[in-house]
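User: Could you check the structure of this?
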Amino acid sequence: MSKQSINIQEQDLHAYVDQQLSPHKVKAVEALMRKDPQIAIKIHQWQQQNKLIKQHFSDDDCDEMPARLDINRFNKSHLNRSSNMPWYYSLVASVLLMLVSGVIGWYLHDLSSPTLKPRISFVNSAISAYEVFSVEMLHPVEVSVDKKDHLVQWLSKRVDHPLKVPTLEQYGYTLLGGRLLAMKKGRPAAQFMFEDNTGRRITLLVSKNPTYNDHDLLFKNEKAVNAFYWMNSNIAYSVSGKIQREELQSLSQGIYQQINANKTQQLAGL
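Assistant: Sure, the predicted structure tokens are below.
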């Protein structure tokens, strides 16, 4: 198959950026970039966006971009090509580049917030812990509710914060018990599990971390799991469950108010 006969679609450009394109299509895309500066600019923006997102959300070191895929190697060709184009084409390309860069820059400004990554990491851990333990039939908790006093005292000591277990009977949920979990960098967390009379379960995860900052209720959805989470000083809380957002929000607000009964802080509108 010749390069001229290869039909490059939008998904091929994304696959090129993600380094998932077949070798013969890689050559075709690179030829297209040399021919069309607008395609080259678009791919360059996607590459930079991917690098920044990985930098802020990946715990692994990001690999350097292979030299053969580096858009900078095409710059000279693009400049020479652009110099032969009508002036207004270059003007339009410059305006588009500024607009795209501005949007991406504003978006990544929020992503790079020093307070965002700990929050995202915490709620993701809470959702993962819910998915792992909420389906357990024989051992859903480490310490059952009949040893509640011991459970609360033990977990409070491990988390290094006096814990308060909310009462959720008014919402149809009763406490099953709880367990000790490990967060990143060896930080402990306490998980309390509740169940209603139909067998549905929700969990409350509590963890202490000096990187946490005050924040009112936030919402996160991960596939079938919903979660509401908030932070008071360096203590973070997350309520997770496979139930409707409205019901989980009501439960979360009830838990929030019980835990913070002695504070005047108001919930943010959701």
